Amino acid sequence: MRAYTPKNDVQKKAYYTDRYYVAPQVPKEKVENDEVFAADLEAIKAKFEVKEAYIQVEQLVIYINPHDIYGVLELMRDELEYTQLSEMSAIDWLAKDGTFEIFYQMLSMTKRKRIRVKYFIKEGEAVDSVEKLFRSADWAEREMFDMFGIEANGHPFMKRILMPYDWQGFPLRKSYPLQGDEFAAWYEVDKIYGKEARDLIGPEIRDTARVDRYDSERFARLGHEVPKGTEITGDEPKNEQPYQEEGGVFLVKKFNKESSKVIDDPQR
Amino acid sequence: MAQVTNRLTPFFENITFDREDNEVILNFGPQHPSAHGQLRLMLHLQQEQIVKAHPDVGYLHRGMEKMAENMIYNEFLPTTDRMDYIASSSNNYGFALAVEKLIGVEVPRRAKVIRMMLLEINRLMSHLFWLATTALDIGAMTIFLYAFREREYLMDIIEGYCGARLTHSAIRIGGVPLDIQDSFIAQLKDFLGKLPQNIKDYEDLLDSNRIWRMRMEEVGVIPTDMALSWGCTGPMLRASGVAWDIRKEEPYELYDEVEFNVPYSDKGDNFARYRIYMEEMRESAKILYQTIDMYNECVKNGETELMAHAPKYISAPKLDIMTQNYSLMQHFVLVTQGMRPPVGEVYVATESPKGELGFYINSQGGPYPYRLKMRAPSFWHTGILTDLLPGHYIPDVVSIIGTTNIVFGEVDR
Q1: Would the CB atoms of A112 and B249 count as touching at under 8 Å?
Q2: Is there a contact between A136 and B362 if contact means CB atoms under 8 Å apart?
Q3: In the 3-class helix/strand/coil scheme, how is A35-69 assigned residue by residue?
Q4: B250 in contact with A, Cβ within 8 Å
Q5: Contacts (Cβ under 8 Å, ≥6 apart) of B393
Q6: Higher-confidence residue: B109 or A236?
Q7: pLDDT digits (tens, 9 = 90+) for B205-240
Q8: Which of A18, A52, A248, B154 sits most deeply, having the most CB atoms within 10 A of its CB?
Q9: How is residue A108 annotated by DSSP?
């Protein structure tokens, strides 16, 4: 029987993990250790619910409710001087608990501080667009939609950005295989020639090192040259190639079996 | 300021089109020579003026973030070369620094100095390349040849160091793999000696060039709030009046020990960006001179370590691997299974030649990152074209794309 592989996470897994291995944690510090962050957190807490907050690798991480995101970012931009949204995207936890984790990476240039605002949504739920606050969210949310299928409410142009508009599937989900699914494998063929041409054209050859030694159309047969297009069945005569011209070349010595020494003692 | 120039009044022929509003949709790219890569722009035109711009990207999308989730950390490093392939060491560095922050290792001083040298050489390479291609787009062929000549010297130095000219992979997680070659400093000093004159030559050709100024001045003005809102960083932001350089504000490596200025301008137009690129080349040269001194000091103090000592994550030096059994075993595990960083997440931003290059890594304690997000500056510098191009004329599109300095390996990832 074939071993069971979970379909909701088909990414590469470590093939061996020591059964007693406990992964260490990147240390989380208390927010009170940094007074700028502590003040910012107080300001946010005064208006919105903050579920969790800690400092990790010099940056404040806060977890909020999904519907508060617009308000929190507006507060941060207008009152706390976090004037730039550097990045936003999602993390796929569908295999674990059916959620996506959304993160917004904020930067304050006056305070020289970075805050990561995060929340969880369930599969199929949409996020609130912050494109009205930060134009950079326009493309970031489109990319998130393209890669995870998470839509943003109130976004002016919720279309794919990196993949073609008519693509099926969401490439960065853990359930999407690295090599692509069936749709991806036949995308061009289906689109240009139609599904019925699949047999005629055949699957895409992904092995870049593949050489068909009997194919005289597409492969140079070094040492066994034949006219292009010749049918070869496999019994072609061996064509020995002299590798050195007569008289020799400067510095290059012809290998002579008689005068060479054979080392047959492996211990020598 | 040799000449006071007037903007030429554009002359249009009376062309009427079938549509009632005379709007033409022009498809610019994705194979346009001055799009600097696979950029497709759909431009809605009223005669020659753009009323709506719609950049379309993704023609170079290789799914690097997906690849990262299926690769061990060291395996992924050469892939980062293919992001901003004009200055690939800066991508290596961004990724390496993020992983180092995650696993919490400190890089030896000598490696830091070498890294800074490589980063600044990459910055110079990138800026020279920018100058060459942008000038070529505008029509200044001479600059193209000059700047490529200088870039070639730098690529030779890098080639001597790591064997590659474009895809360096010269900065590894935990340090650098090699010490600089014997001729490195002599070559670099030779180059830096000529650089001021070279930059002056470019400026002599361009600064007072009437065509250059007409194509650059007051074209593509990005106001400060627009630059901030669109997440612009690097020279794009500094040209719009925000003196924000991560090397200065959130110093990494030894940037807090070197002296350099952050050039900025409040004009926000193409010409301001051009001036900033030129000034930044001078600042890079200044930093490189200081790193040479720092390197010589390291040699004098007998600091020979090039890789951090962290046996859990980073292989021992070659000599140990070849002579000590435990180091060899450790190396074998790290190569076949990969390092397993602690559970946690990190976002690290570095100042790449094009802007803020950030790596967000979420590790779940496995040998493969659970999620890796690359924040490439060019992605947003392409996005801003949506708001920037309307109101401009078709010839301005070329000069604006030029000065945004976008590279599509980075936009599409």
Answers
A1: yes
A2: no
A3: HHHHHHHHHHHHHCCEEEEEEECCEEEEEECHHHH
A4: yes
A5: B10, B48, B49, B50
A6: B109
A7: 888 888 888 888 888 899 999 999 999 999 999 999
A8: B154
A9: E
Q: Which of B244, B250, B387 sits opposite A135 (nearest CB)?
A: B387
Number of domains in chain B: 1
Tell me whether residues A84 and B249 touch, CB distance under 8 A: no
Q: Does A76 touch chain B (CB under 8 A)?
A: no
- What CATH number does the domain containing B259 carry? 1.10.645.10
More confident site: B25 or B363: B363
Average pLDDT over residues B356-380: 93
Is the peptide bond between B30 and the residue preceding it cis, with omega within 30 degrees of 0? yes
Residue B12 has pLDDT above 50, yes or no: no
Among B265, B216, B274, B279, CA closest to B237: B265
End-to-end CA distance of chain B: 41
Contact of B230 with chain A, judged by CB distance below 8 Å, is answered with yes
Q: Where are the beta strands (DSSP E) in B3-144?
A: 23-28, 40-46, 49-56
Q: Is B69 part of the contact surface with chain A (CB cutoff 8 Å)?
A: yes
Domain boundary at A96, A124, A152, which? A124
Identify whether B176 is part of a domain: yes
pLDDT of residue B10: 47
Tell if the CB–CB gap between A178 and B249 is shorter than 8 Å.
no
State which residue of chain A sits closest to B56, comparing Cα positions. Answer: A161
Render pLDDT for B167-193 as a digit per residue (tens, 0 to 9): 999 999 998 988 898 899 999 999 999
Does A154 reach chain B within 8 Å, measured CB to CB?
Answer: no
Find the domain containing B403 and state its range. 66-412
Q: How many CB pairs under 8 A join A and B?
A: 130
- Residue with the bigger pLDDT between A100 and A3: it is A100
Confidence label for A239 from pLDDT (cuts 50, 70 and 90): low
Number of domains present in the structure of chain A: 2
Domain that holds residue A73: 28-124
The one-character DSSP state at A25 is B
Residue B21: what pLDDT? 67
Last residue of a domain, one of A98, A124, A150: A124
Answer for the pair B325, B333: CB distance below 8 angstroms, yes or no: no
Q: Which residues of B touch A26 (CB under 8 A)?
A: 102, 104, 341-346, 363
